[in-house]
Each structure stands twice: as C-alpha cells, then as structure tokens.
Amino acid sequence: MSDLFRLLNPKSLAVIGGGAWGEAVLTQAKKFGFEGNLYAVHPVKPEVAGVKAYPSVIHIPEAPDAAFVGINREATIGAVERMRKLEAGGAVCFASGYAEANGEDTSGTDAQARLLRAAGEMPILGPNCYGFINALDGVAVWPDQHGCKRVDTGVAILTQSSNISINMTMQTRGLPIGYMITAGNQAQTTQADVALALLDDPRVTAIGLHIEGFGDLSRWEALAAKAHAKSIPLVALKVGKSAHAQTATISHTASLAGGDTAAQAFLDRLGILRSPDIPSFLETLKLLHIAGRLPSNQISSISCSGGEASLVADMANEHDLTFPALTDDQKQGLFKTLGPKVALANPLDYHTYIWRDEDAMTDAWSAMAASHIALTLVVLDYPRGDMCDATDWASATNAALRMRKATGRPVAVAASLPELLPEHVAQQLIEGGVVPFAGIAEALNAIEAASRPAFAPSSDAVLRKAAATDTETLSEYDAKTALAAHGLSVPKAIQTNHSAAGLDTLTFPVVVKAEGMAHKSDVGGVILDCNSFSDVQIAMETMTDATSFHVEEMSAPGAELLVGVTQDPAHGYLLTIGAGGILTELLNDTQSVLIPSNRNDIKQALTRLNMYPLLTGFRGAEPCDLDAIVDAILAVQSYVIAQDDPIAEVEVNPLICGPTGAIAVDALIRKSK
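RE: above sequence
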C-alpha cells in the first residue's frame, strides 16, 4: 500500500490546531462515522471538540495515518517536518499564503519550497486546500459542511478548487461520490498522483478531474495508461478555454491554435473524456458509474409528447449521436402495444393513453431497447412534491426499472428540467440499474462523452523542449530546404536579388515572392504566372521594399491544406492540420494533435475536417493521394522532432494536394537562434 493510499484511507487522524477549522474537522470526522483513532494537537487546550489534545505532534501515542494541519503558514512547515520524522502517513495543509499568493507576497514561493523540504517523501495535499472526504470508509478530513453520504462503491472527484468541491458534494442528483479530494496548490502531490493511487481501489468506478493546469505531463500519461489497463474511465472538467495571447503571431497556425486547443489535443491523446460544465460533469460520472462506457452513439428516445420527442431530436443534433430507424422487430413490438394510432419512429411519442398502464409502458419501452441501441432514454418529468401528487408517476418509474431488468440493456430516465427529478426517485432508479439524468442537455452531453470509443493512450511521450526564445525567422528558401531534407516535397526554386541569375535552371511559369514579409499575399509580395525572364524582372521591380526574392516553379492547382506546428508552453508541440490558403482563418476548419503522432492519428484528424470530401473526390473529382498528404505532414513533424534548438513555429500553407502527390508551395520556420 502506498503512503498516499494510507493518507486517503487512514485508521488514525490527528488534527493540529484548535481553532474553528480544527474543531470543524474533528466534528465532521465523528459525524461521518470515522471509526479510527482521533487525536488533537494544541499547546494549551486539554481537548478540542471533545477529543483529548496533546501539546505537540511528538506526544501523540502513534504516528497518525493522516493529519489535518490547520495552523498558520510558518507553523505548518514545522508541524509537517515533525510528522515526517514520526513517519506519519501524510498531511492536509490547510493554510494559504504560499506560491498561490506570490503576486502579493513574494515570500510565498520560498515558504512553499521550505514546506516541500519539510515534507520530504511524506505525501501532502495542498497547501491551500480543504482536504478530502472518503465516503467509502467514512473518513472526512474536511473543515466544513459537506453533502456526501456513505457508499459502498462510487466515483472519485478531484479538484483544485475547494469551493467547487463543497458545491459538488451538495448535489441532489443521486451520484454516489466515493472520494472528494482537493489538491490546492499541488505543491508536491498532484491530481495525477492522487488519481493513480485511487485506481488501486476496486470500489472506484470512474474518476472525475477538475483541472486548471496539467503540470507534469508524464504523470498524466502514466495515469491514462493505468486507467485504460484497469478499464476505469477518466472525465475532465478542464477550465481555460479563453484565448491566450500570442507573443509573436506571424503564421496563420498560431492564431488558429489558441485557447485550449492543445489541452483538448492532450486529453484526446490520453483518451480522457471531457465535460463542458459542472452539471454535465456530474451526469457523465453518473452514467459511467451505472452503465460504464457505451458501445456506440446509437440511442433511442421515448416520451409521451411530440414536443419532447422533437426537443430531444433537435438538441441531439448538436451532438455526435444518432437515432437509428426502427427495425421491423421494433415496429412489431410497438404496434402490438400501441396499435395503429401512434406514428412509430425514433424518437418515439408513445402518447398518453397508455399512461398508468405499467405493463403497456414496460412493453412499449422495451421494444425501443433493441440490441443495437447503446442506450434508451425515457423523458420523464416528475411533479413538484410540495404541491402535487406524484402517485401516478410511480408506474412510470416501475416501467423503467422493469424495462431495464427485462432487456438487460442500458436505460436512462431524463427530466427535461433538473429540478423535476427528485433525489429519492434518482436513488430508486440507480438501485435498479437505471441512469437518472437531471436535464436533457446534461444527459446528451454525458451520453456523447460515454459513447466515444475507448482506446489505448499513445505510448510515446509528448515532445517537450525548452521554450523558444530569441527567435529568428528563416527565409522561405531556407525553410523549404530544411523541410525537404525530412521528406517534404517542394517546388524547384532559387533565391536571388534583383538579378535573374539562376532563372535558367527553372521551368516557366514561375512565381516571384518577396522575402522577409509575413502573409506576403496580403501585401502584394507574391506575383504568379511569370512566363519569361522579363516577367520576372518586372515582378521584382514592383516589389520596391524587397531586397531578395524567392522564385519557384508554379505548381498545379489542387486542394489546399495548412500544416502547422506551434510550441505550447504547457502541452508541448501542437500539430495543426486544416483548410489552407488565404482564407484559412475565415474557414477555421482545423484539427490538432500533439507531437509525436503516428500515421493513423493523422489520417483520423484529416477525416474530421469539413473539407475532407475535397480530398476524397468531391462531386466526381479525382481523389487526392492521401498517403502523400500524410507523408508530407509526417515530414513536418520529423523536422520538429529532429531539431536540437527549440522551434517556435512551423507552417506550410498551402500544401497543394492532388492525385499524384502533395507539394508545399509556401513554408515558414521560426526557431531559436
């Protein structure tokens, strides 16, 4: 058993500090039914919250498995060091004022470094965190109220924000939370470290991670690999979608790959599911806890209203979900129960005349839960318990439970309004293996996430290099020469000044480009279709600000792609593939993966582009050579990997793609000098 697992599953707990927070931890521990030994530490009080107090950590009768340190910043450092020397299991550091406050207090970073030295190898959570709740074993190292209940199995939720943790414990959606753990500053023990330890607890069915930043990517790579091996799904609530500032945006790629594009690519690479908001996050965890990952994105929907059927269909249209047409067997089963007055379709409006007929509802709903359907969704809103009689809805609840038992297929009940699914009904449905969704939008987000195929995370570590600084931009000629050395096809070209020397080595027509300009097409720095020496000379003379030129043979037209690489400070190198040409930003049709990516990753990214049909023969056109396109993209990646000096940006735009190959007609490289 790891020390971290010892901290999270303690048999003894010490609370250091006798103030309001320390008293609250002891009170919550007793209230939650902690069965281990409780100790209080206070220099003068004989007891804290009814628990005998000792004047110092060294006077406690045993080395505690866990300790809550609820004293000031400086005192915390000494207490942690003493516990480490006692070989305690670990500590929750509640105090703030460490690295998170460095903007206001420059001593914070030093204090955090001293805390880490004091802790050594002993695990600590925080600082600046609330601690954790282990509802599987009845442990609450938590200085506030919470809404967790004892459970036998459940999901684990890890956050950096203690307040978000508190709020999520108060959910009334029926989600069984096995662990709620806050990480605070993650000064020593990261979310990935905690999640790795929790994967060894067989009672954990899924792990949810509220992520502000990843930190050490290798720990996340290890987590994803272990989670996949154990078939435990990971769900992220990743914040930080707002666009980040680019210090020097000279390529199209840099403007397209902003915001959290790289974070999403990292999550995709690891096979970690993502939720857009807290309600969807909780509903996704609930679905995974009850039904696990879904085998496909094919679903059925049932409601007693045409309006609800249409609403579900419209809302699902924005998701990667499908409603397969009814099979003959489904139609026969439905007709047997509903008769000729109901239009049989998926989504199904079964009308209200079988309402209260539990057998009829069970039979009709069961017909929708065919073997090819990943999940059947029953839209069902319950009346307000404080004003209405919900007796009639018992038959609908029972029908959903009987349907689940009869078919053995995944079944969910979704209230269109979250408040119209009472917690006691949600609990009843969960006990019968039915997923209770609080909200249709949240349900569809959860189903879409759970239906994404599970795959083994890449065994290749994300490429990391020092940040590119003091950068220089290579000429187009030098950039193409460098990329060609790694297998990229480029037009034959010369680099020249105002003379025409070397033109006799090229075949007309040619294109003349001014060197030293970003986005040359926008400022008159490109002249096409020069068919003679004089055309070239005239073209050069019109570009009065240019001192050197890149002249290359014209390439045949074709589908235009952008292939770009940017260095992301948090996630490594981002490889972006998209619709190319001068309208790249306007089209905004891109897919991104992290370097290194393999051939199949790149093929899959291409298929997700809206312009992909142009590559495969749109409207009878001859298809492009997809293998050549992938080879070109891999050549760009190969160049980036091979460089000793950090690369800031690489862009090929456009890569002209045709039936016989793919050729880069413009290229840019910005790298450290």
